[in-house]
Amino acid sequence: MEYTNHRPQPAEGKLGIMIVGCGAVSTTFITGVLMARKGLANPVGALTQYDKIRVTTAEGERYMHYNDLVPLASLDDIVFATWDVYPQNAFQAAMYAEVLNEKDILPVRDELEAIVPMKAAFDKNYAKRLDGDNVKDVRTRWEMVESLRQDIRDFRQKNDIARIVVIWAASTEIYVPYETSVHDTLAHLEAAMKADDREHIAPSMCYAYAALQEGAPFIMGAPNTTVDIPAMWELAEKTQMPIAGKDFKTGQTLVKSGFAPIIGTRCLGLNGWFSTNILGNRDGLVLDEPDNFRTKEVSKLSTLETILSADDQPELYDNYFHKVRINYYPPRNDNKEGWDNIDIFGWMGYPMQIKINFLCRDSILAAPLLLDLCLLSDLAARCGRSGIQRFLSFYLKSPMHDFTKGEQPINNLYQQYTMLKNAIREMGGYPADEKID
User: In 10 A of CB 290, how many CB atoms?
Assistant: First the structure.
């Protein structure tokens, strides 16, 4: 049940945002929000803060900011908490990440220093390149869950929090294939957790389970399997909580989901699309491990399939070659570079090429996504929406969908934007007046 006709409850009280991971992405996000509410920075890239949506009223058409359409939480009401395998506080982590200049961190140093990561629920087998020791001393997956639930309850009580959103901004775990006997039902998932099934229950699943049981929406910002299983969908419906995922759409896939529709709209053919990246931050280090890269590869490869579909246009897209690579290159740190070579063909089959070189900043692109995803997930919960939030696909590389029923995800950026706008219109009491075609 993704949508109800209920209008959202007011955004009263404090909104707790609990982030798994206190690295480059998280500290860039937190620092930007703290600076923005002091009037010292602008939250550029966040649709919730800048975008306008056309709505139709009895008086005609007009464009409204999101917060004029629906009651979003104020930046002033956000309280942050993090979990991380490294014990450094958010100020130390932000300085170490070297994403932001010192002058953009120091004005909120005191607030950042107060954000000290809680011990992480961690299994080194899922991220072999990480060696932090700020880790929970738990014996089983079920103890991991119970400890995380207590963290959430303690944070809520200590800070007088009205509502909580939990978002994963930590590293990519090794690939966990869908296992029917474990992941198909909530009962099977819980049994596997209690049996300490470490092969099929990733630490991220413990975070998601704990969040949903404690009445908090959960957002998966990495390509981990986590909530992309029927058992988690069942739990989300049971707890009446929204879930969203997976994998923040920041650099190369953002370009791909926006550019591929140009090829499809012009009915040009595709022979091949080769994508490679260089990245030097902690995410790049983790992805240098083949098992972790496999998880990311599955996410990034899925983008083209529904945009340039062989079923729809077999003569144009029946047999194109698609390859994705990520290369760990420490000198670049958080400054990611994505190269795309696209081999297309046109009139009478004549070949052409397109080259795209995107020099971007990974955490600068990710930070506004975290803000939007947290604010809109909180909104969805207050509106009675539960389960997979497909309208948030705009922000994600590999949008969740019910693969058990043959559903295909929507990866076309412009169609995703239409879904986003229509959902906000509906939650604001206006008709969803755009079609996806």
Answer: 10
The Cα–Cα gap between 239 and 236 comes to: 5
Q: Cα–Cα distance between 115 and 160 in angstroms, integer?
A: 16
252-265 and 290-301 helices cross at what angle (nearest 10)? 30
- CB burial class (10 A; 0-12, 13-18, 19+) of residue 57? exposed
The C-alpha R_g of the chain, in whole angstroms, comes to 21
* HEC profile of the chain: CCCCCCCCCCCCCEEEEEEECCCHHHHHHHHHHHHHHCCCCCCCCCHHHHCEEEEEECCEEEEEEHHHHCCCCCHHHEEEEEEECCCCCHHHHHHHHCCCCHHHCHHHHHHHHCCCCEEECCCHHHCCCCCCCCECCCCCHHHHHHHHHHHHHHHHHHCCEEEEEEEECCCCCCCCCCCHHHHCCHHHHHHHHHCCCCCCCCHHHHHHHHHHHCCCCEEECCCCCCCCCHHHHHHHHHHCCEEEECCECCCHHHHHHHHHHHHHHCCCEEEEEEEEEEECCHHHHHHCCHHHHHHHHHHHHCHHHHHCCCCCCHHHHCCCEEEEEEEECHHHCCEEEEEEEEEEECHHHCEEEEEEEEEEEHHHHHHHHHHHHHHHHHHHHHCCCCEECHHHHHHECCCCCCHHHCCCCCCCHHHHHHHHHHHHHHHCCCCCCCCCC
Rounded Cα–Cα distance for residues 120 and 151 (Å): 10
Reported pTM: 0.94
CB 53 within 8 A of CB 60: no
**Sequential pLDDT tens for the chain (437 residues):** 444 456 899 999 999 999 999 999 999 999 999 999 999 999 999 999 999 999 987 788 899 999 999 999 999 999 999 999 999 999 999 999 999 999 999 999 999 999 999 999 999 999 988 889 999 999 999 999 999 999 999 999 999 999 999 999 999 999 999 999 999 999 999 999 999 999 999 999 999 999 999 999 999 999 999 999 999 999 999 999 999 999 999 988 999 999 999 999 999 999 999 999 988 877 777 777 887 777 767 766 778 988 999 999 999 999 999 999 988 999 988 898 999 999 999 999 999 999 999 999 999 999 999 999 999 999 999 999 999 999 999 999 999 999 999 999 999 999 999 999 999 999 999 999 888 87
